[in-house]
Write a structure and sequence with these properties.
single chain; alpha/beta; TIM Barrel; Rossmann fold; Immunoglobulin-like; 3 domains; nine-stranded mixed β-sheet; about 30% helix; globular; Beta-galactosidase; metal-binding
């Protein structure tokens, strides 16, 4: 398993390994040593090549301060290695031992209400604490020195799902570090007061020592600039905490690969220092958990959305934890994958960019806060259908990996994503509106259902391989992106700008020029003269919550039906649509074509959607938020003209299609996401690598069955 230097971050980046990582997170400390040899034999028989160890075992590795004992893991690693299973070891800093939190209580996290965390869970230590960072470096150094020459260890995972249990802290250590960060960023208190709008509500400070971390409803809202800088700081501090470990591991053995496994995407700037320090990113994928928590629709479409959002940060990735069965903690539980579904969900991850995958977990725990979180084996140590499906998946990978590795996921339609500042700017001032991702979901779901290649991309990335870019109301549009986006349009691309884009600068100030601001206004030929809220029955109002994981939120309260008074409608082509959330009145340049007009109330006759020819392409502006019907109307207007077409025509419902490609190679993934047999037609002529059979036009897929067609 060879590692090469990683390429720069890009949605088009492939993994820098020559092997597909396939295996399980494994906890030998949870069972008697008599299980270990049988575990290794079964892993090897299943076709696994790697196992992940150690992320929650600091108390075993260092039972007393300065006293290290790695013997349990030495033996476990040797047993696995003797059966051809390599080890990914983890730094164990998500769960500090009790002696540490008892001796150094200042390392404990403090919540917004001033409550100090206690020992007995995970992520209860404050990664902003200099004392905790010192102990993190110490255990990482001890592990690196001990295992630097171990032939069975191929790579490392830093910590475990940083910021998943909680990303914020209100401890004294956090406030001290926050002040240092602000001093470094602004240098003078006058510069900070300007950035945070200190003359509003008398929120100016006399010196940096007066600043505290922001608290919601204290009693009113804090400055958006204060809020945004706090979350910038949290991302900065998380990257610094991880970098301590990365530097130690790199010095010990530069051959090792290093990654992190992300759970919730909170307060981490993946395209910043955090991502640059790693070989690649890992994303833990629990499709039924996302669907249960968000009620966002079918779990297959939700999994596709999550994977596409994640891939925009760094390109191809691994899945260190892929759901294998029923999952639960005391506060929730998920649906159980039906026969064949675990394998299909794993292939969905591969189809959308995974070049490595580990099923969570090898066996379920018999004690603790996840006793009903099922694994590949059952509690009685008997391998049943999940083990057989994992073995089938391993055979799938063996058949396709030669063609798979080195390919990237095709995108014809791309949605602007992976920008930390815009993610946080929305949260700093959500005002009941949908987040950028919630808005973009309408376009993503349409493309998913039609089999159109769709994903997310950052505007600074290489846009030459996409045909259409949609920007979902990014309030912070940065001037340095203008050149790349304008070149994309001039070279034949279609740019679609959503409402409210470019309405704030990096300090969350409203610019003195009309939105969408310098660069985009000239490119689109429009300026937003006025905007207003659409108060629909049941719409989110003053009580909308801030965004949560990957941009989705749940409204805490709905406006009563009696508040439904003002609906604004517009026409695109021959179809009338109702505006969602917001309307904008546009001042339009003479050469701009109006392709949608408001047609009721005082807005009647004004431009709602415009298009301007620029070179070989077009720049389109939409003066409202997306809806399902609007996406359909725009697709009818735009897709055929821009060469956007389904990967497979006449795609049946509940069939997912994706293409991974490289020079001279194309793989079409065709995945039946439901329990009924389906007939898929209009397929390209090629070979289904999973069965070895020729495919020419038609294919029958049984419940949760898949095909990978090389064409």
């Amino acid at each position: 398993m060879k590692r090469k230097a990683p390429a720069p971050l890009s949605v088009w980046r492939t993994l820098n390994l020559d092997e597909f990582l396939l295996g399980v997170p494994h906890y030998p400390e949870h069972v008697d040593e008599s299980y270990w040899k049988r575990d290794a034999e079964r892993m090897a028989a299943a076709g696994f090549n790697v196992s992940r160890l150690g992320e929650f075992a600091w108390h075993i590795m260092e039972p007393r301060e300065g006293v290290f004992d790695f013997s349990l893991f030495d033996q476990a690693i040797e047993v696995l290695g003797s059966h051809g299973i390599k080890t990914i070891f983890c730094t164990p800093t998500a769960t500090p031992p009790r002696w540490l939190t008892a001796t150094y209580p200042e390392v404990l996290r403090v919540d917004e209400n001033g409550k100090t965390a206690t020992h007995g869970s995970r992520q209860h230590a404050d990664t902003n604490s200099p004392v905790y960072r010192m102990h993190s470096r110490r255990i990482t150094q001890a592990l690196a020195e001990h295992y630097r020459d171990n032939k069975h260890i191929v790579g490392w995972q830093t910590d475990n799902e940083l910021n998943t249990t909680s990303s914020t802290s209100h401890s004294e250590a956090t406030e001290r570090e926050f002040r240092r960060y602000l001093h470094d960023r602004y240098q003078t208190i006058d510069a900070l007061n300007f950035a945070w709008g200190g003359n509003f509500w008398a929120t100016a400070y006399d010196n940096f020592d007066q600043i505290t971390v922001p608290r919601a409803h204290n009693p009113g809202f804090p400055s958006p600039g204060h809020f945004q800088d706090y979350h910038r700081f949290l991302a900065h501090a998380t990257a610094a905490f991880q970098r301590d470990q990365v530097e130690i591991l790199r010095r010990a053995n530069p051959v090792w690969f290093i990654f992190h496994n992300l759970g919730r995407l909170e307060d981490i700037d993946f395209r910043g220092q955090f991502g640059h320090d790693l070989d690649f990113l890992g994303f833990d994928i629990y499709p039924m958990l996302y669907d249960e928590m968000r009620r966002t629709g079918g779990h297959a479409a939700t999994q596709a959305l999550h994977l596409d959002v994640c891939r925009a940060y760094s390109g191809n990735f691994i899945v260190p934890e892929q759901a294998s069965g029923f999952g639960s903690q005391p506060g929730f539980s998920t649906m159980t994958p039906e026969p064949g579904e675990m394998r299909r969900m794993a292939l969905s991850s591969v189809a959308r960019g995974a070049d490595g995958l580990m099923f969570f977990r090898w066996r379920p725990a018999h004690y603790g806060a996840e006793i009903y979180w099922m694994g590949i084996l059952d509690h009685d140590d008997v391998p049943r259908r999940r083990y057989r499906e994992a073995m089938e998946f391993a055979r799938d990978i063996a058949k396709i990996k030669k063609d798979l590795l080195g390919t990237t996921v095709r995108m014809d339609v791309a949605i602007a994503g992976a920008d930390f500042d815009n993610q946080e700017a929305y949260k700093a001032y959500p005002m009941g509106m949908p987040s950028p991702v919630e808005d973009a979901v309408h376009l993503h779901r349409y493309c998913y259902s039609k089999g159109i290649a769709c994903g997310f991309i950052h505007p600074e990335d290489d846009l030459s391989r996409i045909k259409l870019l949609y920007v979902p109301h990014w309030v912070m549009w940065k001037p340095e992106w203008n050149g790349n986006v304008e070149a994309f349009v001039k070279n034949g691309g279609t740019l679609v700008i959503g409402a409210m884009t470019g309405t704030r600068n990096v300090h969350n100030h409203i610019p003195t020029v009309l939105a969408p601001g310098r660069g985009l206004s000239e490119l689109c030929g429009v300026r937003v003269e006025e905007f207003g809220r659409v108060a629909e029955s049941g719409a989110d109002g003053l009580f909308g919550l801030q965004g949560t994981e990957f941009g989705l939120h749940h409204p805490a309260r709905r406006l009563p039906a009696s508040s439904a008074a003002r609906r604004y409608k517009f026409v695109v082509g021959n179809q009338e649509h109702e505006a969602a959330h917001l309307y904008e009145l546009l001042d339009v340049d003479a050469e701009v074509e109006v392709i949608g007009r408001w047609n009721n109330r005082f807005t009647s006759g004004r431009a709602a959607i415009t298009s301007r020819k620029v070179g070989k392409g077009s720049a389109i502006y939409i003066g409202t938020y997306l809806t399902g019907s609007l996406v359909e109307g725009l697709a009818d207007q735009l897709f055929a003209h821009t060469g956007i077409a389904p990967l497979v025509a006449n795609l049946p419902a509940n069939v997912e299609v994706t293409v991974r490609e490289a020079a001279g190679r194309k793989l079409l993934f065709v995945l039946n996401t439901e329990e009924d047999t389906v007939e898929v037609s209009s397929l390209p002529t090629g070979v289904d690598l999973l069965t070895g059979k020729e495919v020419s036009g038609c294919l029958s897929l049984g419940p949760h069955e898949s095909a990978v067609i090389r064409f």
